[in-house]
């Protein structure tokens, strides 16, 4: 938000200075953002997907949320794998990837970081597609490890749990992400950290679920530690490094 000071001279208003207002929670100058219509179109698309999930997969949605905390419920859903569950998973994951793209782009813009090609549309598509490719690669890697080491039930259950937690996180944070362009900029610095916290909690619960799977299948704790280092911590550090590099380059 910008505050403008004026002086009166012969009944004409002349602009003297424009002073940026700094909001709590972020360092540096925070500028008022005029979001293009493309952002609204992506948010409308998100609401359309959200409505499809709500009205077509209501029962599956309730079971999905129960599986967030209940390991037995999650295992039962994995073993049954009904056609409706698969359809719900596809639609819910699509919403998650769109939410990632919208949230990453809005956060970059709010913090004064240049968008990909200075375009909201390209930036949203870039982050959405990148997230989908990342999880697709991770899914393929786990399936391959399951075949190589003859632990396919564990690898398949992990992939199922990974996307389950992503789906829940996307459903929870979408309403928060969707209101960012339309609320006061004073409130936005509280919304963005809240979304980060939800994603972080989802990730922590996902790690705990993997521990439950490995413990139930009587797999060595050493294998669990190796898994954390090779397939969770290392990719996370790489993502942080890439984001930091992009942020530094785009702010130049």
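-> sequence recovered:
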């Amino acid at each position: 938000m910008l505050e403008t000071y004026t002086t009166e001279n012969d009944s004409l208003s002349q602009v003297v200075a424009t002073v940026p207002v700094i909001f709590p929670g972020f360092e540096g100058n925070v500028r008022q953002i005029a979001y293009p219509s493309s952002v609204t179109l992506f948010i409308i698309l998100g609401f359309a997907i959200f409505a499809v999930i709500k009205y077509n997969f209501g029962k599956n949605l309730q079971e999905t949320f129960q599986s967030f905390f209940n390991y037995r419920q999650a295992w039962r859903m994995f073993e049954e794998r009904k056609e409706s569950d698969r359809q719900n998973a596809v639609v819910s994951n699509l919403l998650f990837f769109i939410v990632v793209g919208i949230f990453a782009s809005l956060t970059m813009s709010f913090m004064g970081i240049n968008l990909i090609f200075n375009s909201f549309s390209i930036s949203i598509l870039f982050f959405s597609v990148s997230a989908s490719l990342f999880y697709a690669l991770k899914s393929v890697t786990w399936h391959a490890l399951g075949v190589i080491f003859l632990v396919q039930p564990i690898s398949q259950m992990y992939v199922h749990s990974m996307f389950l937690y992503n789906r829940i996180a996307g459903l929870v944070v979408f309403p928060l992400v969707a209101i960012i362009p339309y609320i006061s900029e004073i409130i936005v610095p509280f919304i963005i950290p809240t979304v980060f916290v939800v994603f972080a909690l989802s990730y922590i619960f996902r790690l705990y679920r993997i521990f439950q799977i490995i413990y139930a299948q009587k797999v060595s704790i050493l294998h669990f530690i190796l898994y954390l280092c090779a397939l969770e911590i290392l990719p996370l550090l790489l993502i942080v490094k890439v984001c930091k590099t992009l942020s530094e380059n785009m702010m130049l």
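The chain has one domain: 37-250.
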